[in-house]
Amino acid sequence: MSSAGNKGSDAEQCAAAFLQQQKLTLLEKNYRCRFGEIDLIMREDDTVVFVEVRMRSSDRFGGAAASITAAKQSRLIRTARHYLAGHEGDFPCRFDAVLISGNRENEIEWIRNAFDES
Fold this sequence. Notes:
Number of helices: 3
Protein name: UPF0102 protein NE0719
Structural class: alpha+beta
CATH topology: Trna Endonuclease, Chain: A, domain 1
Pfam families: UPF0102
Family: Belongs to the UPF0102 family.
Number of domains: 1
Order of helices and strands: HEEEHHEE
Helix content: 25-40%
Radius of gyration: 14 Å
Strand content: 35-45%
Largest sheet: 5 strands, mixed
InterPro entries: Restrct_endonuc-II-like (IPR011335), tRNA_endonuc-like_dom_sf (IPR011856), UPF0102_YraN-like (IPR003509)
GO molecular function: nucleic acid binding
Shape: globular
């Protein structure tokens, strides 16, 4: 039986592989700073893509998408700004979500521009 940490890591691995099949390039996994953590940082053409990966075994509490709250979005935005501040250049960026429904044979839903900085 997998622990919650292993399931999260498995979901991130699955999401990274899926996005790489979509021609995105993996830059970093589990980027951490004092503001929070970003599961995956990818690049699509010249755009830096910050990816939140969510796995839910049921939709009982709104499913994976509902778990990305306004507070979580705020932490992701601050963490992304920290990441960008450490890299030279002015890169366009966006925030995507990859939702994995464990109760449907790992059905993957990729939401581009899941939220913005406003």
